[in-house]
Please model this.
Amino acid sequence: MKKLAILSLSASVLALPALAQQQVVNVYNWSDYIAEDTIAKFEAETGIRVVYDVYDSNEVLEARLLAGSSGYDVVVPTSQYLARQIAAGVYQPLNKDLLPNLANMDEELMQAAAAYDPGNEHSVIYMWGTTGIGYNVDAVRERLGEDAPTDSWSMIFDPANAEKLADCGITMLDAPPDIMQTAMAYLGLDPLSQEESDLEQAAALLEQIRPYIRYIHSSQYITDLANGEVCVSIGYSGDVFIAADRAESAGTGVEIDYSVPVEGAMQWFDMMAIPADAPNPEAAHAFINFIMKPEITADITNYVYYANANAASMELVEEEIRNDPAIFPTPEVQAKLFPTITRDARAERTLTRLWTRVRTGQ
Amino acid sequence: MTGARRVTESALGRLGLSGRALVVAVPLVWLLVFFLIPFLVVAKISLSEVTIARPPYLPLLEWDGLRATLNLNFENYAYLWNDPLYGNAYLFSVRVAFVSATLALLIGFPMAYYIARSPEPRRTLLLTAVILPFWTSFLLRVYAWQGFLRSNGVINNTLISLGIIDTPIVMLQTDFAVYIGIVYTYLPFMILPLYANLVKLDDSLLEASADLGGRPVATFFYVTLPLSMPGIIAGFMLVFVPAIGEFVIPELLGGPNTLMIGRVLWNEFFANRDWPVASAVAIAMLVVLVVPIMALRSAQARAEEKR
Amino acid sequence: MKRGIFLPLVTVLGFVFLYAPILSLIVFSFNESRLVTVWGGFSTRWYGQLFRDPQILNAAWISLRVAVVSASIAVVLGTLVAFVLMRFGRFRSRALLTGMATAPLVMPEVITGLSLLLLFVSMEQLLGWPAGRGETTIIIAHITFCLAYVAVVVQSRLAGMDQSVEEAAMDLGARPVRVFFDITLPIIAPALVAGWLLAFTLSLDDLVIASFVTGPGASTLPMVIFSKVRLGVSPDVNALATIIIGIVALGVGIAMWQMRRAIRRDRE
Model:
């Protein structure tokens, strides 16, 4: 342990004199969600020191924001959480004079994001993605034949298909709004419906296929897909690409693909926002503005394989990623994407209760 | 060391009786500030109404300039009572915790006994060996168990290659995996208090029993077991009680049917963002569990005073 | 029971149970492949990567500091609680103290974490302390829940202890403080060691409570690990665990060797 002690001691001694005069920005972002050199570049350009922490769940972030004085200047919640948090008064409106790089952003996507943050008052898109199907190409072909409906939710939601895939492992995200809304879209209902009868129908559909589901978890499927432990997952786009990448580099012979089904899929955004009680709002604006530089955003997309919403960065994004319809969907597919909505406490509870019934049969 | 001790002693001695008060006051004040007050905050939240704000619940006391109104809302508790989900989750959690604690006792007692009866330095070596695995992160150990239990994991692969089974046994995402995880994680909590108790077990009593012709089994049941009862109670409590509220282990090893109270609480907090109902779940659980446990501890203390 | 095979057998099996997962993470820390379930050949690349990752090293150092400080204070406070409950007879706040020393065991971590977070936020608003959250608040939170565990362990030891020695000393005119330090403390020492180890382990392993009460720049090791496990355990974390085990095992080995030498010297 001594060695570690000396290492980090020397690190903190070096940092100390700088701390006195230097501006600081406290950033709280998802883990593995930024290019390796982004922070160093920001520090070099602005002279502002970055305290960079990472999290892996919206939940703890939300609890800390709701309790107040979290100490963070920039946070990156997912859109549906952000919407609730804006309503609760967690964030300060952005000062757009300090964000000239907003001009780089894709207008259509910013408009889509306005479903969560009316008028884009409080937030800027960091990265975005969809909730679709990640699948093991060979395993699915083996069980459903050459013309397997990989571009349709019927691959999972049709009990006949689900039954055939059950032995190689189907998984779902543990995200009630994502799954329930998707089920409603598959049934031809309005995915944004708050009618209890519609939600009941979705739950009934899910209960039908529930016996064929291996497990319901929001991140376990990433490694399991890569290992060939499971073969079909309802998952987040970027996570499925990571699984595909892992499988390829490990040489397991597993080929993973991702599809955005034709019935439509949920679109979500990870948004940069500034808490109302942020200690360094100016530095926070500088950080957000810096991320919106075309070359910086392109760096991040090239590193994490998530789609960005920065129109000016597109020519700097590697061609292979830019032209991948699973990452940047075609305009036709984009037209079918739907957001999620902010529910009041009662509707939220109905949804969760139905979901618990689906999960546990209780 | 002795100098410092003498100074403390004389300082406390001069204070006389108030030294006694001081000894009570230090932990009491600490717990008042860092446990009781936060606990009362939770109790307060459990009686308020949910809203979208920061913090996400309405204040109990409202002041409209003329008079204050107290809004006590017992609906949250009524809600728990009316939906069988909560009761079932409680019962299931208690069952899982009880089975796990019993298993931990069955494994832990012989280990603690063997360690306590070993000569030095082997005793210290074994005791450290019990703790050592727990200085690696808990999450790593749980993930390692995943690696063992999965269908193409170590156990299944071994069994298949030995020809004992043909198709993998599904162990991960079952209650079995949850038991393994909890027993594994809490085993030192069982062994340590048992060890601390057994190591001081008077050898002469065991010898006396043997001399009087007591068979080892009889000696164990009539001498060792009663004498180690405080350690057994302590160990059982340290496994049983925290295991009830366990969240991470069932989440990582259990299946979707595994619905323990920790998960219910998590849902209320984070899926429903309903802090009042979540607080009510916690308070109800605390009341249901703390009362019997307190009774147990007072009984232990009273029995001691009588001796 | 002297020559029974049962005890050693159970003990050996128990240790196999305890060490099987540890063995697997040591093995996989030398795995070339990033996937923890596929063996890709022997490699030490993750150790190199570990030492280039200030985030993990820093978090490990914070966790260690927090665990040592909170375990030490928790042992003192927990012992006081146990002693007061077992030796002071009746006093006014007795029921309150018993309750408060029991309830933290029952409180689900989420509630403990959140309630302390709310407390710290309002304390900061009212008193200006603790200014912001970080290591200090984690330590306070850990002391509070570890204290309860220590109290249970020490209480069980006090319950099993022969009080006549204490009484004899008291009869001979020794002051209570003196009796405590000269007689009680040495007798309950194994329980204090056990309690400290327990508290240290609890603190080192805590994820949920620390996630709530921490602040910018103070991520503990479990928090960093958890933020990475979404993509499966990263092998560099296995490497860190292996190093920790290695260092502790080495330390224990040296201590054993010295102890054995001391014992041999005593015999001569």
